[in-house]
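INTERNAL AUDIT FORM
Audit reference: QA-55
Scope: verify that the stored structure record matches its stored sequence.
Auditor: D.O.
Record contents follow.
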Amino acid sequence: MSKELSTLQLAKDGLWTENPGLVKLLGLCPLLAISNTAINGLSLGIATLMTLVVSNTLVSACRSGIPKPIRIPLYVLIIASTVTVIELLMQAWLPQLFLTLGIFLPLIVTNCLILGRAEAFAVRHTIKMAIADALAMGMGFLVVLVLLGALRELIGQGTVLADAHFLFGEAARHWTLQVFSQQHGLLLALLPPGAFIGLGLLLAFKNNIDRLQQQEPKSNTAPITTNAQPDR
């Protein structure tokens, strides 16, 4: 029962309480640079999630046999190998998406989130819990990427899911939703300043929800009083 509760707590931490993008502020370089569309954000989020799951699993599996002096270099080797495999697969099967993500795909190796979870969690827990942590943190990062990308895409060019065929194939070419004409979009949203503004809005939204939850009274029940007279 305790393991189940721990898994639920990990999910809550990754998606909300300790969200990598909105609380820990990790991986901001790719988060801000590649999140100009929802599909780009989703693609990088999936690649990061896959890297987290593989690296956490391998680190947890080898944790008892990793000498302390080479612990960090070994983590980097595992992460770099995983990213290289993902990069080669994407180059072979999703070439347009590979070109769109560009340098930010191999830069996953330097993402502090992945190395941090390996050192702070995976090396100290079982494979099952390490995978649960990777899924929670990876999904939290992915959600922020998609939300920020969709927000910037909608405001900047009036679309949602533009270039979906880059990730899902030709069948998704017509998935694009044109909410309003591109000429009425705000170009600033697609530029680097728009990424900072969009992330700031998401941070403010989350912090406001947390503040409102803290202000909610824990109990609406008032103390019960009685006017009964004592027996004489």
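Auditor finding: record pair retrieved intact. Residues 44 and 154 are 19 Å apart (CA to CA).
Action required: none
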